[in-house]
């Protein structure tokens, strides 16, 4: 059984920390709850933490890690019998994000005035998406909020785990690209101007490709701000374009057609929407409503459209597997077939949960494979770039020395 280092707070807000053995974080949270403590953070001893790419900056929103801890603690405190007002008071105090802290404080005020929790959460769509709000609403109506909080914590945790795998896999290639850019800046602003002076002093003919390299160095050394403004403007333009409907469709189309990336997109979106459907159906949400909610939370427009069209067909009497079969090119192999098995056995939610776990692993493996492919490609590109630069400079230098010697 692994050993966890944890940070916790009492219901009165006092800090606490220590070590405890537990099967997983959920069991750790329950064990601490029995001691009157709320789990804030936990780390398994002996396991190296990955790079934390999440920063709590207001305009970046609330990190998924904080949402997971908040949801888990919400479930733990609710199961102890604490009132919603007291729960959200504690959660707002312990929150690190100013945006989440303010939202939780406002939710506490709304709940204290008699408003439903789901309605109060719905005012903050950037923090609590439609899936989150609708599951809470179902829990309120069915009296199963305790179970809903556990399902939501699992849902958020799996989403975060998949996204973290993608971020961690892309970290090393990103570092290589950054180093390449830094080396390029040094060469352009320092090395090339010196070489330009050297070739000018020789007063001998030089090849056109060497002149092109020297001209580029001369231009960028005088307009060095373009090295920063150019990439920033390009990224800004791309971000603005993909925020438009046509731009989003164009990006999603491109991602689905790129050789290696398409598999990651298909498996990642399949895993996300399958787990969303599984969580919603297990919570008691009708299938049609579950499809409509999932269509608004899935990232890719093609998957969203497929779910909307499937909901329309199901209203006409078709089964889920049949309604999605028209879009079999979007889903990874076996998804529709397993859905059909779930419908025949009456265990759709269970089958979907197992499918989600499988495709989350598949998506993670696909990301790692892409990272492995990118690394040698970057190294080859770097080698070719260095080789071209060396040839452009050394060859004319050698020719010039021979010309001078003769």
TrEMBL record:
Residues 71-193, 274-396 form the Type II secretion system protein GspF domain. Belongs to the GSP F family. Its main location: membrane. It comes from the Bacteria. The chain crosses the membrane at residues 172-192, 224-242, 378-398. It is found in: Cell inner membrane. GO terms for cellular component: plasma membrane. PANTHER family: GENERAL SECRETION PATHWAY PROTEIN, TYPE II SECRETION SYSTEM PROTEIN F-RELATED. Pfam families: T2SSF (PF00482). It is a multi-pass membrane protein. Keywords: Cell inner membrane, Cell membrane, Membrane, Transmembrane, Transmembrane helix. InterPro entries: GspF/PilC, T2SS_GspF_dom, T2SS_GspF_sf. This is Type II secretion system protein GspF domain-containing protein.
């Amino acid at each position: 059984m692994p050993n966890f280092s944890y940070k916790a707070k009492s219901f009165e807000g006092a800090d606490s920390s220590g070590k405890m053995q537990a099967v997983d974080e959920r069991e750790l949270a329950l064990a601490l709850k029995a001691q009157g403590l709320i789990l804030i953070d936990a780390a398994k001893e002996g396991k190296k933490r990955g790079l934390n790419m999440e920063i709590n900056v207001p305009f970046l929103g609330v990190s998924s890690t904080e949402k997971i801890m908040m949801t888990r603690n919400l479930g733990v405190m609710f199961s102890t019998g604490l009132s919603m007002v007291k729960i959200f008071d504690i959660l707002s105090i312990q929150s690190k994000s100013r945006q989440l802290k303010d939202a939780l404080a406002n939710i506490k005020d709304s709940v204290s005035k008699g408003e439903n929790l789901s309605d109060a959460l719905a005012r903050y769509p950037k923090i609590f998406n439609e899936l989150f709000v609708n599951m809470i609403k179902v829990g309120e109506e069915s009296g199963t909020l305790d179970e809903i909080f556990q399902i939501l914590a699992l849902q958020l945790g799996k989403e975060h785990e998949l996204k973290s795998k993608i971020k961690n896999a892309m970290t090393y290639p990103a570092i290589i690209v950054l180093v390449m850019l830094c080396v390029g800046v040094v060469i352009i602003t320092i090395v090339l101007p010196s070489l330009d002076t050297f070739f000018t002093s020789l007063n001998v003919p030089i090849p056109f490709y060497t002149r092109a390299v020297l001209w580029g160095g001369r231009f960028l050394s005088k307009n060095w701000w373009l090295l920063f403004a150019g990439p920033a403007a390009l990224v800004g333009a791309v971000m603005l374009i993909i925020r438009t409907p046509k731009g989003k469709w164009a990006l999603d189309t491109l991602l689905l057609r790129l050789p290696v990336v398409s598999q990651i997109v298909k498996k990642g979106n399949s895993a996300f929407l399958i787990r969303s459907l599984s969580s919603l159906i297990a919570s008691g949400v009708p299938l049609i409503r579950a499809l409509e909610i999932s269509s608004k939370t899935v990232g890719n427009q093609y998957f969203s459209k497929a779910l909307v069209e499937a909901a329309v067909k199901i209203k006409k009497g078709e089964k889920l597997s049949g309604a999605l079969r028209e879009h079999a090119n979007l889903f990874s192999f076996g998804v529709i077939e397993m859905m059909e098995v779930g419908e025949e056995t009456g265990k759709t939610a269970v089958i979907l949960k197992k499918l989600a776990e499988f495709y989350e692993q598949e998506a993670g493996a696909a990301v790692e494979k892409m990272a492995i492919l990118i690394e040698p490609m970057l190294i080859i590109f770097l080698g070719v770039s260095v080789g071209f630069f060396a040839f452009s400079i050394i060859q004319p230098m050698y020719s010039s020395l021979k010309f001078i010697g003769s």
